[in-house]
Design goal:
285 residues, alpha+beta, D-amino Acid Aminotransferase, Chain A, domain 1, D-amino Acid Aminotransferase, Chain A, domain 2, 2 domains, four-stranded antiparallel sheet, binds pyridoxal-5'-phosphate
Length: 285
Amino acid sequence: MRLMQIAMIDDRIVDIRELDPAYMDRGTFFGDGVYEVLRSYDGRIFALDDHLERFARSLSEVKIEGVDIDDVRQRVLTAFERAGIANAKIYFHITRGSEPRSHVGSKGLKPNFFLTVTELPDDSQKKAAGIKVATHPDWRWKRCDIKSLNLMANILAKIEVEKTGCEEAILVDDNGQITEGAGSAFFMIDTAAKTLVTRPLGPEILPSITRKVVLQVAVNASLTVAERPITPAQAKAADELFIAVTTQDIVPVTEFDGVKISAGKAGKYTQILMAEFTKMVSLEV
Ligand SMILES: Cc1ncc(COP(=O)(O)O)c(C=O)c1O
């Protein structure tokens, strides 16, 4: 018996069997996939191996099988070369595949790959001036170490803080401790103790590649690293704060929950770290 199956796309009705499989992507139905974002500096991709390693781990943690990471690497390189963009943002994801919506899904579904290469805007002014951030409850799930497509809690937090002119939401867990930014790692500097503080890795935060590089260059800025949770009260009283993310590397935070940080300017050590980060990039790429 041939069952009737129709779909409606805006005002158009179509037989489900004639649909582009992209409409039946489990990524769309469930956010059932994992992703990566990497970037190039002056025509060269930064930290590709780190991103591929994290991607492989994400795939394995969500049990998406049958993906050859060398193929992914080759696709990234091919698309990047074809795009010809010197300072590019490379986004890619793999979802569990396409089929009519069902929670568990069929075994052996072919994973879907999708990638974009786009030009990164010049953000030097923003990085020089710093950004305002505000706290928001961390409503995410308990496996934030996986770079999953499910970003609803991150999006809601960003929408909320943007209403007050903030560029990032700093997420606070049920114990009153900061986990990370909605789309970035979060750092505090105690200038008297010459210490750089950030939350330790664990299931509550993404193992950020930029965080890893920042911790590597901290020694060049004469900073000791302390991996411990930070409370909003400690952040408000901090000498310096910054966020870190692939697309922007280090961005100074000049206001936290309405309180000015380092007199509303990029802090001294933050600026040293920014310079050290740039040096590291030129050595690496
Ligand atoms: C929640 C979250 N934390 C941290 C980061 C920073 O990670 P990375 O340095 O690998 O870009 C991101 C980046 O998108 C993120 O979404």
